[in-house]
Amino acid sequence: MTIKRYGVEGGKGTGGQHLPFSRAVEAGGWLKVSGQTPMRDGEVVEGGIIEQSRIAIENCIEIMTEANYGLEHVTHVSVVLTDSRYFQSFNKVFKEFFGEHPPARICLVADLVVDCKVEVDVTCYKAP
């Protein structure tokens, strides 16, 4: 089985910090996208949970698209919110993207190492 890594050069985090991990890894038809926050060009996009959720999911989709996966291939999503009061608002955004192909999901509340409200990662499967 071949393992393909996307973004092995690492991305840029807040303050231009080099991120020492792949944006995604693909093996045997599976694609695991690293957790995405509402960042653009290495900086967190300020805003409420609705806007930040959209950007985090869009960042996942951008990486999935690069690897030739679509929303229909998403099997599982992990969500970290920094406040449980964001749950209903996040669900509204989630449904906008995944309403036709709802994946399995976990959502938890925890502090994030980046100053934002949400982080999302996805796992996809497409028969090789």
UniProtKB/TrEMBL annotation:
It comes from the Bacteria. CDD domains: YjgF_YER057c_UK114_family. Belongs to the RutC family. PANTHER family: 2-IMINOBUTANOATE/2-IMINOPROPANOATE DEAMINASE RIDA, PROTEIN HMF1-RELATED. This is RidA family protein. It comes from Colwellia asteriadis.
